[in-house]
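Suppose a colleague, Dr. K., hands you the sequence of a protein chain of 123 amino acids and asks what its three-dimensional shape might be. Before reaching for any lab equipment, you can write down a predicted structure in token form. Begin with the sequence itself:
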Amino acid sequence: PPVESGGGSVQAGGSLRLSCIASRYLFKPWCMGWFRQTPGKEREGVALIRSDGTTRDGESATDRFTISMDKAKKILYLQMNSLKSEDTAMYYCAAARTHFDVDVFNVRMWPFWGQGTQVAVSV
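The predicted structure, expressed as tokens, is then:
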């Protein structure tokens, strides 16, 4: 499965960059995405990036977050700036060996999931 890293505890206003090793999934077409989940709530999409370079924002998206892919290193990133307490969640990396355009943040569409990395933002 994808392997995430980079989570941790940070004060509000700080930044974190999450990483996800994606080498096993970058055979075109592909989608890689970030999701997040808090206890008692459903997993929500943050953002995805496709093999054609296009990106989509999920319902948890914010202009404080940026998804990117280092194709040379085959690592997916989520840069998170100006973090807020409401960003506290488990963040998951997901992969799909397809290019889908409909219902893209439906978790059932994504066959490969990492174990998650915890982000805790304190005020």
